[in-house]
Amino acid sequence: MLSFTTKGIPKKEQFEYWGALFNQRGIRLALDTQQPRGFYGELKSAVQDDVVLSHIICSENKVIRNKSHIAMDDNLFFLLYIPLNDQVLLKSGDNLLKLSPGEVGLLNTEYQMETYLGSRNILSVRIPQTRLPHIDRSQAVLVNPCRDLASQLLFKRLFALFDQVLSSPSEVFKLKFDQVLTDMVTALFCSTTGKSSRGKAFILAQTQMLIEQHAQEALTVKLICEKLRISEVYLYKCLAYFNTSYRSLVSIHRTRQAARLMVNSSAQTKLQEIAIEVGFSNQSHFSTAFSAQFSLSPKRFRQRFSASIP
């Protein structure tokens, strides 16, 4: 286990510290050297073979990857991102994508890219492209919100793996996490969606969007169907195709919101208060739903992934 912090290092030296630290480990953190920003904070990282797993907490920053950075890399790689407390904006060419807290994004480093991050608390996995031969390389960023049942199971395993590796240094090399992560990423992003399911996928995406937009309102299946101009029977059919339900989508959205609040709020904020704020009626129901989503109890999640920026 490798653990680094900039506590005690003067701010004027922190830019050079982080740049040297990442570059010497082959991560190629491409920061703008002309206008150094305050990239400082804490990093916990584990390395196995050529896979790097990290939990990074740092200040607001902007990462730019251009042709010269790409040319410097001996091997191209994918970066798996899971933001925990703030959205990540990814710009590649004319495309601007948003990665929300709790979503999983896969960045292809053979593309020029700009990444804008707010207060940053993020899980990251660096995997060489040669380890992921079945992943589509025609796009700069692939996003999998992990909301259907198969992806949910993989998402839970991913969080459990992060928790185990980052909290148990002596067990790192016994876990063989490099192959586990490679298999998980392939399963998450190797598309098998056929033409017949694309219409259903649109209904699923629109339902998720409406749940997020009307999270504080008394949104019902009837209102969703009225907005989408479809029958309730067809909505249930579309959701069932992806092994999910309306109740499950609402629960997933609420637990993701709770996770964001947990890493952003102070330790004095009670978990019960967070549960009520995101829409759960009682602590027991919240704990059960949260554990099902993240494979960690709310208390353990907060202990593992919540931290203040120095």
UniProtKB/TrEMBL annotation:
Coiled-coil region list: none
SUPFAM superfamilies reported for this sequence: Homeodomain-like (SSF46689)
Lineage: Bacteria, Pseudomonadati, Pseudomonadota, Gammaproteobacteria, Alteromonadales
InterPro entries xrefs: Homeodomain-like_sf, HTH_AraC, HTH_AraC-typ_CS, Tscrpt_reg_AraC-type_HTH
Keyword Transcription (UniProt): yes
Organism: Bowmanella pacifica
Residues in HTH araC/xylS-type domain copies: 205-304
Protein name: Transcriptional regulator FeaR
Pfam assignment, any one: HTH_18
Statement: the UniProt record of this protein carries the keyword Transcription regulation: yes
Keywords: DNA-binding, Transcription, Transcription regulation
Signal sequence region: none
GO molecular function terms attached to this record: DNA-binding transcription factor activity; sequence-specific DNA binding
